[in-house]
């Protein structure tokens, strides 16, 4: 592989080279892996094992639904708040609880909890090396091995403790949980006792206050003559209401009597039949007279069939009938008089009731003003009575809870710590495996860095194209082709053809960075493949840029159809990695034509940008143009490019015609290359 020039800074890492370097030194990698794994196993075995166990406590309301009161419900809501649950962590890790647990298990005599005394203290001050630890030091040691936390979005507290003794790792969390619950219950008992004493004193004071308030109410009621009737109303107000109701009834009765008397009087004055008046007809006497009158009418009608009108019997019956009408009129007058008497009586009663109501109004107004003060005294007495009843209820509840020792704590242990079966640290197998992996990675990375820094694993990489790069192309009228120093120019006149071997040797001896190969025939074979392989065979970094419409050169170098890119490298739809492939036979690279096009002026500039970028990476950029018109070919030329016209066997005339067209366009340094038969090319490749 050729050396990368000083301006060619971008390189690719040769993965195959790195893999082969690792495989070549696999024994060193294996030894490093085994050494690290052995060291990890030894350390994990020598380190004293540490066991861990945990106890879980749930914070919840423990009060029964049958004994729960409104105050306990509100207190439970405060206990179950997130802030209150978090505060329980501080309670569990308090020095009092940890100190009691340490004293219970005599942790001061355990070597695991011994203080770390410095060597200077032992030498200079001769401190006690074997004496017991101070309580504060024991608590700090416990805190280092203790972890209390709350599970996320739960009211569950976890107490974890680690120790070299598995039994101690189990007993410490359980003891801390029990001590926490015991202290919480003790706090509730103390609070209940204090509340009972306070309530007892308050109840005694309230009983006196209630008695005084009720006495004031009774005395004021007696002094103000505010007697209470039905529905707890003042007697004057109740009497006023009753008199008003009776007065309304009396007025209605008077109006009805006057109306009935007026209707009877009107019937008499107008001479109407009295039997049409309802009040007259309602009289029993009138009803009897009407019945007698009906009987007389029937008898007269019966006798009229046999007797004459002047018969004494008929005349007697008619006289009796007239007497009945007189009696009915007299009875109607009595009914009218009775109604008038009734109306007058109702009027007199109305007057009396009105006077009584006026008197009661005055009394009720006086009672109303006095009742305001009475209600104020009653409210004070009622409030004192209600407060006394509430305190007495709470007092009895507190006495009952204290005597029966029913003070449930709003927490319970639902998962006690169990004896751990295996240590949580060190884990021999994971540590050994991790150490082995670390040894493998250490050796591998060291070998990879060695290969990279030595440059053996680096190869040139195409530079990415920048949008601001502006290639400088010469115009067609000033474009010139770089001459190629052929080995024996005298033996190769312009009319004769040069083969690929001679041209390859000339290119190796020259510094031409770009070579354009054009076919003299529209259906000619891709000629750049032969030259690119010739240069690659001599370890020259070469890339063949395939500008043929069908990517014939790329296919000839073994690029499969599905690997041909379809984007444009300049506008970003395709990258160099999509377009550049490696020749199956040599180390030459090939860039497919799928990402490049020569359709307009912008396309020529883009192709120029790509060729300039490739020229900074590769020693030689071989451009296989296929068959291109002369005017199109001139636009790809610059002062450093060599131009070769490839001629198929037996088509020398077409090559000379192309040479003439190029000469007419101002390109004189053009070389004809004979492709030769395919068998000749293969034979020459095998000989090389």
TrEMBL record:
Source organism, top-level taxon: Bacteria
Coiled coil: which residue ranges?
286-394
Q: Where in the cell is it found?
A: Cell membrane
Transmembrane ranges, per UniProt, are: 27-51
What GO molecular functions are on record for this protein?
protein tyrosine kinase activity
The record's Gene Ontology cellular component field reads: plasma membrane
Protein's name according to its UniProt entry = Chain-length determining protein
Protein source organism: Aureimonas glaciei
């Amino acid at each position: 592989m050729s050396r990368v020039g000083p301006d060619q800074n971008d390189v690719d890492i040769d993965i195959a080279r790195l893999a082969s370097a690792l495989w070549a030194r696999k024994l060193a990698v294996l030894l490093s892996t085994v050494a690290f794994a052995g060291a990890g196993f030894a350390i994990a075995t020598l380190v004293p094992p540490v066991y861990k166990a945990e106890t879980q406590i749930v914070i919840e309301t423990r009060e029964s639904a049958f004994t729960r009161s409104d105050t306990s419900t509100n207190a439970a809501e405060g206990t179950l708040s997130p802030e209150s649950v978090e505060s329980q962590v501080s309670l569990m890790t308090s020095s009092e609880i940890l100190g009691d647990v340490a004293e219970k298990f005599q942790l001061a005599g355990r070597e695991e909890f011994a203080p770390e005394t410095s060597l200077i203290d032992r030498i200079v001050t001769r401190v006690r090396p074997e004496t017991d630890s101070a309580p504060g030091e024991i608590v700090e040691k416990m805190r280092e091995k203790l972890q209390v936390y709350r599970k996320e979005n739960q009211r569950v507290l976890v107490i974890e403790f680690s120790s070299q003794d598995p039994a101690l790792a189990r007993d410490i969390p359980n003891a801390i949980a029990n001590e926490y619950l015991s202290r919480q219950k003790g706090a509730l008992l103390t609070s209940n006792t204090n509340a009972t004493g306070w309530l007892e004193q308050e109840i005694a004071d309230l009983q006196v206050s209630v008695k005084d308030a009720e006495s004031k109410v009774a005395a004021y009621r007696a002094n103000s003559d505010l007697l209470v009737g039905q529905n707890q109303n003042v007697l004057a107000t109740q009497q006023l209401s009753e008199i008003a109701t009776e007065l309304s009834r009396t007025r209605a009765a008077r109006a009805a009597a006057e109306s009935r008397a007026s209707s009877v009087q009107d019937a008499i004055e107008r001479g109407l039949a009295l039997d049409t008046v309802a009040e007259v007809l309602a009289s029993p006497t009138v009803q009897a007279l009407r019945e007698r009158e009906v009987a007389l009418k029937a008898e007269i009608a019966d006798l009229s069939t046999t007797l004459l009108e002047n018969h004494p019997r008929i005349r007697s019956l008619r006289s009796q009938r007239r007497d009945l009408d007189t009696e009915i009129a007299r009875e109607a007058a009595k009914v009218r008089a009775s109604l008038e008497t009734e109306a007058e009586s109702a009027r007199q009663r109305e007057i009396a009731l009105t006077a009584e109501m006026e008197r009661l109004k005055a009394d009720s107004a006086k009672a109303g003003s006095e009742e305001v003060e009475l209600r104020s005294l009653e409210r004070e007495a009622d409030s004192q009575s209600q407060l006394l009843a509430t305190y007495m209820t709470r007092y009895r509840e507190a006495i009952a809870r204290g005597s029966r020792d029913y003070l449930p704590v709003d927490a319970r242990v639902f998962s006690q710590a169990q004896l751990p079966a295996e240590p949580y640290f060190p884990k021999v197998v994971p540590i050994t495996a991790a150490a082995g992996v670390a040894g493998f990675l250490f050796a591998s990375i060291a070998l990879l860095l060695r290969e990279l820094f030595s440059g053996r694993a680096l190869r040139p990489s195409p530079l990415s194209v920048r949008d601001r790069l502006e290639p400088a192309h010469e115009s067609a009228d000033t474009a010139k082709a770089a001459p190629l120093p052929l080995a024996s120019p005298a033996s190769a006149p312009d009319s004769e053809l040069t083969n690929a071997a001679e041209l390859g040797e000339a290119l190796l001896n020259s510094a031409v960075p770009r070579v354009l190969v054009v076919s003299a025939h529209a259906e000619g074979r891709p000629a750049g493949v032969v030259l690119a392989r010739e240069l690659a065979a001599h370890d020259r970094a070469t890339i063949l840029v395939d500008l043929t419409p069908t990517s014939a050169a790329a296919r000839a170098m073994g690029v499969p159809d599905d690997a041909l890119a379809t984007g444009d490298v300049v506008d970003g739809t395709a990258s160099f990695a999509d377009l550049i492939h490696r020749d199956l036979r040599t180390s030459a690279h090939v860039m497919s034509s799928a990402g490049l096009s020569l359709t307009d002026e912008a396309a020529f500039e883009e192709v120029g940008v790509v060729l300039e970028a490739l020229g900074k990476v590769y020693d030689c950029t071989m451009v296989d143009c296929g068959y291109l018109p002369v005017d199109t070919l001139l636009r790809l030329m610059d002062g450093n490019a060599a131009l070769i016209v490839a001629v198929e066997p037996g088509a020398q005339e077409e090559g000379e015609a192309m040479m003439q067209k190029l000469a007419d366009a101002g390109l004189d340094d053009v070389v004809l290359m004979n492709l030769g038969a395919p068998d000749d090319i293969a034979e020459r490749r095998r000989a090389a």
